[in-house]
Each structure stands twice: as C-alpha cells, then as structure tokens.
UniProtKB/TrEMBL annotation:
Belongs to the class-I pyridine nucleotide-disulfide oxidoreductase family. Residues 372-479 form the Pyridine nucleotide-disulphide oxidoreductase dimerisation domain. This is Pyridine nucleotide-disulfide oxidoreductase. The lineage of its organism: Bacteria, Pseudomonadati, Pseudomonadota, Gammaproteobacteria, Methylococcales. GO terms for molecular function: flavin adenine dinucleotide binding; NAD(P)H dehydrogenase (quinone) activity; oxidoreductase activity, acting on a sulfur group of donors, NAD(P) as acceptor. Its cofactor is FAD. It comes from the Bacteria. PROSITE patterns: PYRIDINE_REDOX_1. It comes from Methylogaea oryzae.
Amino acid sequence: MHRLLPSLFRHLAARRRLRRWPKPRRFDRNLVVIGAGAAGLVTAYIAAAVRAKVTLVERGAMGGDCLNSGCVPSKALIRTARLLAQIRNAPHYGIARATAEFDFAAAMARVRAVIREVAPHDSVERYAGLGVEVLQGEARIVSPWAVEVRTAQGTQTLTTRAIVIAAGARPFVPPIPGLAEAGYLTSDNLWDLRELPRRLLVLGGGPIGCELAQCFARFGSRVTLVEMAPRLLMREDADVSDRVAGRFRQEGVDLRLEHKALRCLAEDGEKALVAECRGEEVRLAFDQVLVAVGRVANTQGYGLEELGIPTTPARTVAVDECLQTLYPNIYACGDVAGPFQFTHTAAHQAWYAAVNSLFGGVRKFRVDYSVIPWATFTDPEVARVGLNEQEARERAVPFEVCRYDLRDLDRAIVDGEAHGFVKVLTAPGRDKILGATIVGEHAADLLAEFVLAMKHGIGLNRLLGTIHVYPTLAEANKQVAGAWKRSHAPQGVLRWLARYHAWRRG
Ligand SMILES: Cc1cc2nc3c(=O)[nH]c(=O)nc-3n(C[C@H](O)[C@H](O)[C@H](O)COP(=O)(O)OP(=O)(O)OC[C@H]3O[C@@H](n4cnc5c(N)ncnc54)[C@H](O)[C@@H]3O)c2cc1C
Ligand SMILES: NC(=O)c1ccc[n+]([C@@H]2O[C@H](COP(=O)([O-])OP(=O)(O)OC[C@H]3O[C@@H](n4cnc5c(N)ncnc54)[C@H](O)[C@@H]3O)[C@@H](O)[C@H]2O)c1
C-alpha cells in the first residue's frame, strides 16, 4: 500500500495542475505529437493504428536525427571506410595487388543517396497513408490542451486530449574558449563536407567520436582523438575499450586519452587545441575539429518553461516510469526524455507514450527497461545487452563471468577475422544471463540471440542445447554457453562416472 501512495498523490496533484487550465468543450485531436524522429514517428504510427485522430508536427526533415544526421549517414560512411580497409588488407587473402582510388566527395554523395533511399519509410506520404495528419512546422505547447503550429501557410492552434513530446536532442558544444572562432563540425553539419580534412581532431571518445574517427582515419585523414577519460567507450568494460583502442592505434589514430580540452587557438596560420594531460599542457594542431562530447535534449522554446514542466539533472524532460510529465495528458519519449539515446529505445518508449497518452485513464504501463541492447559500429564492433562487469560491481550485483575468445572460432578463422570475444555474466551457480558483451565482426547481429534469451528468460543451458549452423559466427554464442557448462560441470558426479567406467572396463 505504501508504494501506491506516492503515485496516487502524484496523480491527484497532476489532475489539480491540469484543472488550472481552461478545458475546451470539444477537441480537434486525440493526440498531437511533436517531432517526427524515431520516437514521434512510432508514437503517431501506433496512435493511427488504434484509430485515434493524431497530428504529427515536424519543423525540420522527416525522420529526425537517425535518418538525416545520425544512424543512417554514419553507417553508410562506415560501409565505405570498411571497404577501403578490406581492400588494404587484400594481400592477406591472396590478392597480391588491390588498389583503391578513394573519392571523398563521391563517398559523401553516396551517403546522401542512401538517406534519399531510406527517406520514403519516414515520409509525409507514408504517414498520411497510415492515417496520420502531418504538419510541417514549428510546434509550441500553449496549454496542456492546445498546441500552436506555425507553418509556411500560417499559424493554427490545435486542441488535443493528449500531447507526446518527441523533440529529440542536439550535439552538445562545450564552452571551450576559441572553439567558435576556430569553427567546428558536429554530427549535424559533418555531412556537408565535400573535402577530406587533412588533419581531423575528434573531441570525445564516445560512440560518435569512435565511429567517425575510425572512418576518417581509414579515408586517409590524420586523426587525433581527444578523450578526457582514461579510455574510449567508458560505459563498456576496460577489456572492450582496450580492443577498440588497440585497433585504432594500429590504424594510425593518434589517441589522446586523459586529455581535457582547454582552449582552441589560431597561431602561425594553424589551428590548434590546447589540452591538459596530467598537469601538462599539450598543443594539438588540426585543420578541422569534430565535437562529439554528448547530445543534449531539446527542452527550450516550445512551451515547457511556460507550463512549468521541469527538466532533470541530465537536462532531459522529467517523466515518470510511464513517461508522463507533470501533466497527466502530456508525455515525452526518445532522446528528449532519456535515459537512453538510441533509435530502438526511442521506438520502444514510443509504444508506452502512445498507449499511455491515449488510454492512460483506463490503464497505464511502466516502461520495461530490463533488456536494453546497443552497439557501437567501430571495427571491431562492440555490442552489449544487460550488465557488464563494471556495472554489476557498481550495483553490487553478484555475478560470474564466462568468456569465449573468437580466435578459436572456425568461421572467424576462415574469414580472417579471428579476433574479439563473447563475454557473458551469469547469476552465481546458475545459467541465468545477466548480460552479454560481444566484441568482433558482426557483434551487433550476434547479440540478438542474447537479447531474445534475456527477454524470455532462456538460460545458457538451453542456448547450448540449440543447434547453430556450422560454420557461422553465431556459433560463438553456443561456444560461450559450452564454456559456462564446462566450468559448472558437477565434479563429484564426474569422479563417480570415471570410477564407474573404470569398473566397466574390468
Ligand atoms: C552520428 C550519430 C550516429 C548514431 N548512430 C546510432 C545508431 O547506430 N543506432 C542507434 O540506435 N542510435 C544512433 N544514434 C542515436 C539516434 O539517432 C537517436 O537516439 C534517435 O534518432 C532519437 O530519436 P528521437 O525521435 O528521440 O529524436 P530525433 O530524431 O532528434 O527527432 C526529434 C525531432 O523533433 C523535431 N522537433 C524538435 N522540436 C520541435 C518543435 N518544437 N516543433 C516541431 N518539431 C520539432 C526535430 O526537428 C527532430 O526532427 C546516432 C546519433 C548520431 C548523432
Ligand atoms: N551506435 C550507436 O548506437 C550510436 C552511435 C552514435 C551515437 N549514439 C548515441 O549518441 C549519444 C551521444 O554520443 P557521443 O559520443 O556524442 O557522447 P557520449 O556522451 O557517449 O561520449 C562523449 C565522450 O566525450 C568525452 N568528453 C566530454 N567532454 C570532453 C572534453 N572537454 N574533452 C575531452 N573529452 C570530453 C566524455 O568523457 C565521453 O567519453 C550516445 O550516448 C549514444 O546513445 C549511438
């Protein structure tokens, strides 16, 4: 009962807050969704599928960050970079001479072509066909019951039963003196480049910094990666970061870990970043700098301040476990709400935002964050679901670790890609999977089996009992289950069996 009380009080307070605003007698819409990125598109899709009258408002390009400046362009660029790396590695496969004449402008043109090819999936036409009204303009919440939309044709105010905020995030640009004067790239404007930077400084060793630093190094830029933490991809375990850092160094990336950016300067016709490393100042020259030090939610300028909807210390819109804001009919999902910043988590939350905003009066659902996977598409690829070692320790969750090294896997050897590992955390003495990390070729695809297993409570014993095609990379998942089984073999029974067989031999 005591657990229900706070949520009951919250509910009553939210209702009281709503009553302060004049309620229309009739509503134009059941739902207005702000933002047509992954979160907003999926919210609108679900609302239309259950026959609600829904309007989706987008001020920029349909598809948001993922399609236009995030996942799609970055993965298209990675494809080109990977091909170049493979061509360089051709002698390893018995091809004595394979040369490539790389054309950066053409690679960027391909990126734009890929965006155009994917764009119909997120287009106004597709969503109109699904029953969503799409307005291309700037939305502003003027009351919990009304959204004002400014389009090229004029301004209109829509009354609505519910609102879902899916306004996304943007690159965070730190206040580094001289940075604005030096001019900088972010994941928003990088795609406008037509000439390959000769020396590229990448600020930030998170997923964006790592994926793009490796691409540009493979294209032939001299890349310096500056990261203030002691390792890359700090959310992953140290053995994961080490594998990625090792490859980066091999490929010529100048890794500057434990370097904190202090200021940018222009001297002798050259731009440079001054960073601090263990009390010393280091000068790093560059032609272009890419800022990739995190993304910050869009929470200003569209009515949250006026309605008094608060933000969290992480600067996202404050929502409860059902994605509800301070108002019972306003929800938020995707990057604007956090805590994750992925396309698939935005889409996952969107189901809850749509269903809770439309049917919350009857029943509300808490977002299930129990099994969240993600991947960083570097080479080697890094993929994870559930806990890793550092998180398990931080949360004081008891665990055991089993590992399988991909250098032993037949298919990885055949492919000339025998590197990386699969690491699984299990509950002590049991085969219950607490988390899995894969480093290596196609890690993100291989992870799907662990995601399914965790979601449906399938343990390593049942994974071991599942036939995997030979020779595939997916066999690594079975191999790690085998490693777990061997380390948990009942020693007493085995000793007894050895005696039994000896007795049988006479
Ligand atoms: C370089 C890069 C690579 C990435 N790679 C991956 C990846 O491989 N896998 C992955 O899962 N994730 C990846 N991400 C993250 C992923 O792109 C985001 O998590 C995802 O796009 C978030 O979706 P969203 O709908 O919450 O926000 P967004 O896609 O940002 O959509 C929000 C939309 O709201 C609109 N909007 C905002 N305010 C208003 C307003 N007032 N009126 C009207 N419209 C408004 C914006 O114009 C925008 O289109 C990557 C991100 C970057 C930058
Ligand atoms: N493959 C994917 O799924 C994918 C790819 C790209 C981005 N994303 C999403 O986008 C989000 C943002 O990515 P990101 O890489 O920009 O941010 P991030 O927060 O993940 O990493 C930023 C890094 O910059 C470092 N940093 C911050 N300030 C610094 C400074 N002044 N000097 C040096 N280093 C500094 C931080 O220590 C951190 O390691 C990710 O969290 C992820 O959710 C996902």
